[in-house]
Here is the input.
Amino acid sequence: MPILSEGATAPNFTLHSDQGEKVSLSALQDKPLVLFFYPKDDTPGCTIECKEFRDARADFQAKAHVFGISPDDMASHQAFRDKYALTFHCFPTPSIRSPVYSVSGGRRRTAQRASTAPPS
Here is the structure.
């Protein structure tokens, strides 16, 4: 599967959020989606990035859904969200390896943003 380009239709996925809700991409067709991938909760760089998304909520809220994805577990995401009053869902995944979203995993993880149009 080729790497997803900005503005391209994203393949459907369903994940459980840090609030225990099941979220499917196919149900989010009302506005674009901004996914940002980060390696670990509560680390200096990732915390800055997540706080920037939190602080920009007013800019995003009416225009796009915003979700953070990292390999941390549900408990870690919940504590991270509560500690920094994050205003978006964080999704735990066993691995952030995804060729579609141009994200690699492993010992040294690379996080990149994917901004996608809603599925048609």
Remarks:
- The beta strands are 14-16, 22-24, 33-37, 65-70, 89-92, 113-116.
- The first strand starts at residue 14 and ends at 16.
